[in-house]
Structures are given as structure tokens and as C-alpha cells.
Design a protein that fits this description.
- This protein has twelve helices and 13 strands.
- By secondary structure, it is α/β, with parallel strands linked by helices.
- The chain has a five-stranded mixed β-sheet.
- Helix 2 runs parallel beside helix 5, helix 3 crosses helix 4 and helix 7 crosses helix 10.
């Protein structure tokens, strides 16, 4: 629809037809779907062109605005033009920028959300999450005509942090629309919207990589996610002096997991399912080779030390229902400032994102106080309300060289 000026005009005709049928929402849904599927490339041309095509009398308005700038006279609109309707223009710009945010958040470059399970909440304040402990080995022999023993859920709990509201507004002025001939304004608008995705990515990674201190159990003080000791149930999930070189380093990490037990029952904390091996870009190739190797060769080719060939020893983890995926991002290095620190575990069991509001985008047209007092043609507002937190750090570990 938006590949050229001609298709801009076609898009306007489609909107007019949908409006006449009383279903303009269908047009916007089609625009949204086209943006998400990559069929529409609306950032390839200027925001002025979009304004002129999707605002009634938009070309005339821009002509009058140009005359006003040159003559100093006010813009005199006819009675029918007294309230310039920029709703369609604002809606389309809003969809374009929101699509851009979602593209970034879902790209392979941003990994923070993949390391968290999203849980919905109806409060922005601190919460207490009860009953996250195991029950343990509680089954007993029951005699004939005897009652079964009753066991309650453990009283352990964690406290989650407050969920702040975050957001900003991007105003688009008449001057910006008038001056834009090459699409630079749309690039700047998209860049502003992208900052919401970037800010969320940093917050999520800071939580998952242990750069923020938010883990609070049973009313205790906040403590580090990764450490050799912990309060309110001691455990060790920090492996020092272990560079990621080959499968033996991952094996050392798995043995550290084997030593971690539930603080209430003493039972092993079962690490299973798909684990994530999170590494900076400098270790990406090494991690991929370790996880995906089809065979391992050991020893030297000589008469006394024969060459040993076997399958990847990590494949034995599949017998425990464990698989691994490599996750890497430039932001992993950016947040930790390390090319050698790596992480392993079931991150979605360990970390949650408590979401009161998802990332939301809103568009306001010209007919507002800001439109009159500040010459704002459209405003785009972005907001979210949520906070990542640590639920069970016994499912993850950190390794340093």
C-alpha cells in the first residue's frame, strides 16, 4: 500500500471506502497486518506525504501553511476546514511506530523477554508471592480404614518490587511535517519509539544477569541473585574460575546445580526442560559448538595414547529431560561489561515479568490544546507498567573466568 506515492493515494481511497461503509477499523487492521508482515514500508517516504494524503484537504493545508510562513498572515480556513481532522494521519503514524517497537522487541537482537515468563498483575505496588516451595517426600503408608495424612503448602514467600509506570510523548509539529521531504522525520519518530523497547530490554537483562538486587525471601533483605552464599535458605549458584571452553565447563555447572536443594524440604531442586546458555557475542561460536557438536575427540594419535571418539557428552542430559539453547546478544556484553562471563539455567522458571500494562501506543490528532498552543499536528504517547523480579534463583547460575 505504501510503496510509492500512487499507492499512498490508493491507501487513501481504501480508507474513504471503508469509512463510507462504516468500517474504518478494518482498514487500520489491514494496515497493522501489512506492517507486521513486512508488506508495507511506510518509512520509505516523508511524513508530509502521508499528511497530505490521509488528511482531508491536507495538500491545501500545507499550501496555506507555506503562505503563512512567507507572509506572516494567519491561516484562514473555510468554515468546513475550521476543524482539520488529522485522525487518520495520527492513527497510521501510531501504527507505524508501534509496529516498529514490536519488531524490535521480537527480534533476535533483544533477548530479555525470552528469559522471563510474563505474569499479569492488577496492582502497581509490591506483592507477596506465596507457596513457591516444594512439598517434598510426604507420602506415608496408610492403613486400612485410616485417614490419609494432610500436608499444607509451605509458608515460604517472596516479595516482588513496585511496578512503576514509564513512558513518554513524541510530538510532531507543523514545522516538522512541512519541512520533511525525505522521510527523516519518520526515522526520528521511529527512533524515539524504539527507545521504549531498548529501555525494557536493559531492565530485563539487568534482572536476569544479576545486575539489580531484588530477590527477597520470607521478608528478608534484598540479596544478590548470584552468589556463593545466600540468606533465608543457603545455596551456591556462582561458579568462579570457569571459562567457557568445552563441554567439561558446562558439566561443572551442572554439578553445581546438583548440589542445590530446596530450603524447606531438603530435596534437590530439579533443573529440567529447556535450559538457556546465555553468553556475550565473544562466546557465541564457542557456546554453539559446545551445544551442537556431534562428536568429541580426545587424546592424541600415537601408539601409546589412542584417539578417543564419542558422541557429544551433553547429549546424556537428554535422559534427564534437559535440552539447551544458546542465547546471545550485544546487550549481554553491554550490561555485564564482560566478554567471558556466562550464564546457564532455566531462566523462565527463575525470572518473571510482572505486567500491569503491556507496551502501549496512543495517538492524538491536531484538535487538542497542544495543537492550538504549540502547533502540534499529532502526538504519540508510549507507556508501560511492569517490573521484572527474581522468583527462584536456584534454577540459574553465573560462571566467571
Amino acid at each position: 500500500m505504501f510503496e510509492s506515492i500512487n499507492t499512498l493515494k490508493k491507501g487513501r481511497r481504501l480508507l474513504e471506502a471503508a469509512t463510507n461503509d462504516g468500517t474504518p477499523e478494518r482498514f487500520y487492521e489491514d494496515v497493522w497486518q501489512g506492517l507486521r508482515e513486512g508488506q508495507l514500508k511506510a518509512d520509505r517516504f516523508s511524513i508530509r506525504q502521508m499528511f497530505e494524503e490521509f488528511t482531508e484537504d491536507g495538500v491545501e493545508y500545507m499550501r496555506l501553511y507555506g503562505n503563512h510562513r512567507r507572509s506572516g498572515a494567519g491561516i484562514q480556513l473555510t468554515e468546513s476546514q475550521g476543524s482539520v481532522d488529522t485522525t487518520a494521519f495520527s492513527n497510521i503514524i501510531g501504527q507505524i511506530t508501534f509496529s516498529r517497537v514490536m519488531d524490535i522487541m521480537e527480534s533476535a537482537t533483544f533477548v530479555g523477554m525470552a528469559l522471563h515468563e510474563t505474569v499479569q498483575t492488577n496492582t502497581g505496588y509490591e506483592e507477596i508471592i506465596p507457596g513457591i516451595t516444594q512439598i517434598g517426600d510426604v507420602a506415608e503408608e496408610v492403613g486400612e480404614d485410616e485417614d490419609y495424612p494432610t500436608f499444607g503448602i509451605g509458608e515460604s514467600f517472596i516479595q516482588t518490587p513496585r511496578k512503576p509506570k514509564k513512558g513518554f510523548i513524541i510530538p510532531v509539529t507543523e514545522e516538522a511535517v512541512w519541512e520533511d521531504k525525505t522521510g527523516k522525520v519518520m526515522e526520528r519518530v521511529n527512533a524515539g519509539a524504539e527507545s521504549m523497547a531498548i529501555e525494557l530490554e536493559k531492565e530485563l537483562l539487568d534482572n536476569a544477569l544479576g545486575l539489580t538486587t531484588s530477590y527477597r525471601r520470607n521478608g528478608g533483605n534484598a540479596q544478590a541473585t548470584y552468589g556463593n552464599t545466600h540468606t533465608e535458605g543457603d545455596f551456591d549458584n556462582l561458579l568462579g574460575g570457569t571459562s567457557l571452553v568445552d563441554y567439561t565447563d558446562v558439566d561443572d555447572a551442572m554439578r553445581l546445580f546438583d548440589a542445590i536443594t530446596d530450603p524447606d524440604t531438603g530435596e534437590p531442586v530439579l533443573v529440567s526442560g529447556q535450559l538457556q546458555l546465555v553468553v556475550p557475542p565473544a562466546l557465541r561460536a564457542t557456546a554453539w559448538r559446545i551445544v551442537n557438536a556431534t562428536e568429541i575427540r580426545q587424546g592424541a594419535v600415537s601408539a601409546s595414547v589412542p584417539l578417543g571418539v564419542s558422541g557429544n557428552p551433553l547429549s546424556a542430559l537428554q535422559d534427564r529431560g534437559i535440552s539447551m539453547e544458546v542465547i546471545s546478544s550485544q546487550y549481554v556484553k553491554n550490561r555485564t561489561s564482560s566478554d567471558s562471563t556466562w550464564f546457564l539455567g532455566n531462566f523462565r522458571k527463575a525470572f518473571k515479568y510482572s505486567e500491569a500494562w503491556p507496551v502501549q501506543g496512543f495517538a492524538q490528532d491536531r484538535n487538542s490544546q497542544a495543537g492550538f498552543s504549540r502547533d502540534i499536528i499529532t502526538q504519540l504517547k508510549w507507556r508501560r507498567k511492569g517490573k521484572p523480579y527474581v522468583e527462584e534463583p536456584r534454577h540459574v547460575l553465573k560462571a566467571t573466568a
